[in-house]
TrEMBL record:
Gene3D superfamilies: NAD(P)-binding Rossmann-like Domain (3.40.50.720). Transmembrane segments: none annotated. Signal peptide: none annotated. GO terms for molecular function: arogenate dehydrogenase (NADP+) activity; NAD+ binding; prephenate dehydrogenase (NAD+) activity; prephenate dehydrogenase (NADP+) activity. This is Prephenate/arogenate dehydrogenase domain-containing protein. The keyword NAD does not apply. Keywords: Oxidoreductase. InterPro entries: 6-PGluconate_DH-like_C_sf, NAD(P)-bd_dom_sf, PDH_N, Prephen_DH, TYRAAT1/2, TYRAAT2_C. It comes from Halobacteriovorax marinus. It holds the Pfam family TYRAAT1_C. Coiled coil: none annotated. GO terms for biological process: tyrosine biosynthetic process.
Length: 241
């Protein structure tokens, strides 16, 4: 199987490293270090060439997904399955449907892990699959492949995904960014609870500000979560005045 990957950021590199063990992996990005691509088992190719892959995975920021969809539209074959890995699902899948040829199959995915949490192994990590117009047989094959590599597959609609992720991932990142803004660090006089709180920093400190901003901007349920968080925090602070 030939797999194409557009985007060679932290998640793109993780994808190349793991998929190259089973597939021929072609990689495209505007700025590529060919030696690094090859060291992970991939091959650097042009945009037109990567779009010839049977499976095309878009490892790009949420805010870039529409432009990428427009760029690849003339080159993508009707036999190609296009997948994205965005941490928001409604927005990117809408843009892919809008700009890609209607015959192209689309599968939304969200790996619930990253280069840090999956550095040693993917076993036990979660991944969400959001079906669009992908045929049932191909969907089952992909699901089975992921499960055979130890991943826990969760099937959900794009809206179900975004609603839950606003209350889990985006909330966690919001609290983590707040701790960073407060310059929260380990202290000699602390508690186990405080040390656990600082663990949140480990999940967000290596992620970009762009990711945090994009999740909040493009997830339709993020604003509701922020309003609820702000209201609850104000209620708590008012109670101790």
């Amino acid at each position: 199987m030939r797999v194409g990957i557009i985007g060679f950021g932290r998640l793109g590199k993780l994808a190349v490293k793991n998929l190259s063990q089973d597939s021929t992996v072609c990689v495209y990005d505007i700025n590529l270090d060919n030696s690094e691509v090859e060291s992970l088992g991939g091959t650097s190719v042009s945009l037109e060439e990567v779009c010839k892959s049977k499976i095309l995975i878009l490892c790009v920021p949420i805010s870039s997904i529409e432009n990428i969809a427009k760029e690849i539209s003339p080159f993508v074959s009707i036999d190609t399955l296009v997948m994205d890995v965005c941490s928001v699902k409604v927005y990117p899948m809408d843009k892919l449907r809008k700009h890609l040829p209607k015959e192209v199959e689309i599968l939304g995915t969200h790996p619930m892990f990253g280069p840090d949490s999956a550095a040693k192994s993917l076993y036990g990590c979660k991944i969400v699959l959001c079906k669009d117009n992908v045929c049932e047989e191909k969907f089952k094959n992909i699901k089975g492949y992921l499960e055979s590599h130890g991943l826990k597959v969760i099937v959900a609609t794009a809206h179900e995904h975004d609603k839950q992720i606003a209350q889990s991932l985006i909330l966690t990142h919001t609290i983590g960014r707040t701790l960073m803004d407060m310059n929260s660090t380990s202290m000699e006089i602390d508690t186990k609870g405080y040390r656990r709180l600082l663990k949140i920093l480990e999940t967000v400190e290596n992620d970009s500000v762009q990711l945090f901003e994009d999740m909040n901007k493009y997830n339709p349920y993020a604003k509701e979560m922020r309003t609820s968080l702000s209201s609850s925090l104000n209620n708590i602070l008012e109670s101790v005045k």
